[in-house]
């Protein structure tokens, strides 16, 4: 498998050899869906609290007598059937949304995503990406000159200038190989990997 090596103008200067075990796998849609859903679910926090019929503050007096009114039987106004009553299955702060995904499945899913990105010409390699100062304008102009508007940059050495310059760009994310998550790989239109980061990815997913 060969990946395009881009120059500073965003044009393909040459090719870089990449292992087929990582960048030449078949597209496994079910597995990719599973790891993306699991990643998003594991990022959720149980921060909602609802009250059940025991916790709502209502009188326990019977609203009306059991028989003779023509209305349905009612024991107390905190019933979940009543407006303002407790919830039947309330959300609690200790609710667990996590999904378990085996390491082997996760790596296979990431490899499948990378392979599909390479087939769709959305993944490229670059020697290095840096800016002279932590200015958003400099990075924006550089990416615009390369024809990139939505890009995930995976770099081995997280340069502080590059990180600070990218923070205010909504469609640009700079991260290290170990922080390249499945959601970001799927979300961005283009993925740029520096040469040292490519070697690290191959070592991680081998």
UniProtKB/TrEMBL annotation:
Residues 49-58 have a biased composition (Basic and acidic residues). The keyword Coiled coil does not apply. Residues 43-78 are annotated as: Disordered. One of its GO terms (biological process) is translation. Coiled coil: none annotated. GO terms for molecular function: rRNA binding; structural constituent of ribosome. This is Large ribosomal subunit protein uL4. It comes from Oxalicibacterium faecigallinarum.
């Amino acid at each position: 498998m060969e990946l395009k090596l881009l120059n500073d103008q965003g044009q393909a200067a040459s090719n870089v050899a990449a292992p087929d075990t990582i960048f030449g796998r078949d597209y496994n849609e079910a597995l990719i869906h599973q790891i993306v859903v699991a990643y998003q679910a594991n990022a959720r926090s149980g921060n909602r609290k609802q009250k059940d019929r025991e916790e709502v503050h209502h009188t326990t007096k019977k609203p009306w007598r059991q028989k003779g009114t023509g209305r349905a039987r009612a024991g107390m106004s905190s019933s979940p059937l009543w407006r303002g009553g407790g919830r039947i299955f309330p959300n609690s702060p200790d609710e667990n949304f996590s999904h378990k995904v085996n390491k082997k499945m996760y790596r296979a899913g990431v490899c499948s995503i990378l392979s599909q990105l390479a087939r769709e010409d959305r993944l490229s390699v670059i020697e290095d990406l840096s800016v002279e100062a932590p200015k958003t304008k400099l990075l924006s102009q550089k990416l615009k000159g390369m024809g990139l508007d939505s890009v995930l940059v995976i770099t081995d050495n997280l340069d502080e200038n590059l990180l600070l310059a990218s923070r205010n760009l909504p469609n640009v994310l700079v991260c290290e190989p170990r922080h390249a998550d499945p959601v970001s790989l799927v979300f961005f239109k283009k993925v740029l990997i520096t040469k040292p980061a490519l070697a690290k990815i191959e070592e991680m997913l081998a």
